[in-house]
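Chapter review: from sequence to fold.
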Amino acid sequence: MPSLWVDADACPRAAREIIVRAAERTATPTWFVANHAVPLPPSKWVKGLSVSQGFDAADNEIVERLTQGDLLITSDLPLALEAIEHGARVMTTRGEALDANNIRARVQMRDFMETLRASGEHTGGPSGYSDTDRREFANALDRWLAKNA
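The token string follows.
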């Protein structure tokens, strides 16, 4: 059975709650990985993994533990690229599937926007996590779990 891996450092609380409920409902092993303690309910299926402080420590731990067919939930595009290269599936907390067909273009756009921001351009950030985002994410996660759990 594939596991769920969550890049918990920037996972919205609403998405975390959706993941926990889905993991419990489907008895799917789920790991929340962060460089700080993530509040989680007691569970047989949901575990938190705190890693040492340090640049990309949580990302490195996730990549080391991922196995082919696992699902990583993250909005970190470089981490997503690495996970895809290791055979994992990737989904954002907005329900967007990232795969070999779209990840490189997304990383390139991210890098371009980062260059603009570094030059003083105001590009704005991502929009807030909306009810539509929650619904899209919950539906996408349910579809994935129905096929893979």
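Two observations follow directly from the output. Residues 4-148 form a domain with the Rossmann fold fold (CATH 3.40.50). The chain has a mean pLDDT of 89.
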